[in-house]
TrEMBL record:
Secretion signal, residue range per the UniProt entry: none
Xref: InterPro entries: 6-PTP_synth-rel_bac (IPR017543), 6-PTP_synth/QueD (IPR007115), 6-PTP_synth/QueD_sf (IPR038418)
Reactions the enzyme catalyzes: 7,8-dihydroneopterin 3'-triphosphate + H2O = 6-carboxy-5,6,7,8-tetrahydropterin + triphosphate + acetaldehyde + 2 H(+)
Involved pathway(s): Purine metabolism; 7-cyano-7-deazaguanine biosynthesis
SUPFAM superfamilies linked: Tetrahydrobiopterin biosynthesis enzymes-like
GO MF assignments: 6-carboxytetrahydropterin synthase activity
Enzyme's top EC category: lyase
Top-rank lineage group of the source organism: Bacteria
EC number assigned by the record: 4.1.2.50
Family designation: Belongs to the PTPS family. QueD subfamily.
UniProt source species: Limosilactobacillus vaginalis
Name the record gives this protein: 6-carboxy-5,6,7,8-tetrahydropterin synthase
Any matching Pfam family: PTPS
UniProt xrefs under NCBIfam families: 6_pyr_pter_rel
Length: 118
């Protein structure tokens, strides 16, 4: 049996500042590349999946992540951003009958964090 998966790619422009080992970085921008791998038991139009994901991404686009409520108690690292997106996108896709099975978020061409379903 085939393993069929959609891959949708999005871009998110945002700035952030991280504190690692007590040291603050400068505020800096990223164009995050976001790859969503999605399964659906039935035909789902691309537009439905894209709209569901964009509902989440539009809240973050062109924002300073550190000032958002979602990052009030966590540092907006690549890893934490990916975890937040995975939970939010999973919930939105679930509401349209789809399942997010993998999420890749890259802050540069050589730095990517990936979450896969178990």
């Amino acid at each position: 049996m085939e393993n069929e998966t959609y891959r949708l790619t999005f871009f998110l422009n945002a700035t952030h500042m991280v504190t690692i080992d007590g040291k603050d970085s400068s505020i800096h921008p990223h164009t995050f590349e976001i790859n969503c791998f999605i399964k659906s038991q039935k035909f789902t139009a691309f537009e439905i999946m894209e709209n569901s994901i964009n509902q989440i991404l539009n809240q973050l686009n062109n924002q300073y992540l550190n000032e958002l409520e979602a990052f009030k108690n966590i540092v907006p690292t690549l890893e934490n951003l990916t975890r937040l997106l995975y939970r939010a996108i999973s919930a939105n896709l679930g509401s349209v009958g789809c399942k997010l099975v993998e999420l890749e978020v890259a802050e540069s061409p050589v730095r990517t964090f990936i979450i896969k379903e178990n």
